[in-house]
Amino acid sequence: MPYTNEEGGRLNNFANEPKVYQAEPPTNEQKRTYIILGIAAGILVAGLIFVSFSVSHVS
Question: Are 16 and 3 within 8 A, CB to CB?
Answer without folding.
Answer: no
